[in-house]
Amino acid sequence: xLSNRRTFLAAGSAAVFTALTPxxxxxxxxxxxxxxxxxxxxxxxxxxxxxxxxxxxxxSCVYGGLWVGPSSPIxxxxxxxxxxxxxxxxxxxxxxxxxxxxxxxxxxxxxxxxPAAQRPKTxxxxxxxxTEDNSxxxxxxxGLCRLIGAEPYFAGNVGSGAPSELxxxxxxxxxxxxxxxxxxxxxxxxxxxFNVKYWGVGNELWGCGGNLTGDEYATQFRxxxxxxxxxxNAPQPFLIxxxxxxxxxxxxxxxFTGMHGKRKMPDGYAMHFYSNSKLPATKFTVxxxxxxxxxxxxxxxxxxxxxxxxxxxDPQKKxxxxxxxxxxxxxxxxxxxxxxxxxxxxxxxxxxVATAMGLNVFHRQADKLVMCNIAQMVNVLDSMLLTSGxxxxxxxxxxxxxxxxPLRGKTAIxxxxxxxxxxxxxxxxxxEGENVVLMAxxxxxxxxxxxxxxxxxxxxxxxxxxxxxxxxxxACNTFEAPDTLMPRDLAVSVNNGEVVLTLPPLSVTxxxxxxxxx
Length: 518
Ligand code: AHR
Fold this sequence. Notes:
The chain is an alpha/beta fold. It contains 11 helices and 26 strands. Bound molecules: alpha-L-arabinofuranose.
């Protein structure tokens, strides 16, 4: 009979950790499993961009979250919340998408430049009809990206904007000097061009972006793209077309048919895939958790299917598939939204596990994807950080990203646990030289796995692991107890060239090993 308080000891290792108490009423069993990694069966480089982010003018993501303003009593760096900048910089944000979301197709960039006091007050139509003072605009966004080391990705306005507006935004950002717009940028504090590479041509044009059909949007895309060319020494703009919600076939077929094989094909094609649930974040049941986890195999097959739909129109695979909005979207609690802003939800251990499962899907499909952006960075949906007043908490999803970080830039390799099932172990692996990295997610609340990892054709010489785990799916970091959930070292042993470790229930583990050829 297993006791509730469990101690995991790894054979042959002095390291010990104590698992946190599993949720009352659950007793965990331990199952032994073998996992084989195949370093010679490579998939593709795991682009760091698969770990990218999204920040929208929605709730308290930007205003009150990332941006508190220079005169705020909250510690800030020229208006940016200091703690958020520090945490995000430490995490590493490859690309940051902004300003929406639905907000993008109602955003007019000129309202967010020039002296802050003179900027107009505008109504955020999509997210509560409150007014914004536009104190966070183009310069502030690029400034944030520079502070945290992210590449900016501007989502342009197609729905209520004109090609000229987006074309002028690009000139304002990227033309080196000498045009009226580039001189205005210089007067506004940036003589150097921003050299923005990523440009979204609208967002969710099938819905909040304009309620178009796929072929209607193709006409719009061709028109807009014609006026979005390389400027000065800026990088060739990477134009991103709006893809489907989830695995919608009709949208993708209609869009690419409507492109008529024109030269102005998109560089990126961005699908959105949320993992919804009927219950509030901290009130999950085992059944609801299983239902949400079951969306990850669906995400994986949607990626494969969407790629197969694009291929006939793009035989050379020049159009990069993206998932530029994804993550858990639970049932909102009205009182929490009132206190913290629209689409605010707690991020629990269950959400961290779900987020890690999504990252594993992307690593395994590294040959199909060029960028993925979690929704969203702060205080909205599957957020990395939650803020309240001067408090700023890192969530389990932040730690899922942190634990996945060693896979960035590695070559993804196959394992014998190939696809996501939603209910069994979820894994992805990568290699670089003699370093092999594994991300293993245990989605079970009542079962731990003692894993024996072998690397085909190689022997593991040494290994170490870190893990985030908690037996309670609804456990979370609160403003009062911000460090309840944090990754910690996990005991591993190396026996006969294999690694042995025990994955606690509801856990995300990052394992790194050094290997030599047999
Ligand atoms: O991320 C929240 C919203 O979800 C975005 O604004 C929109 O693109 C999507 O429907």
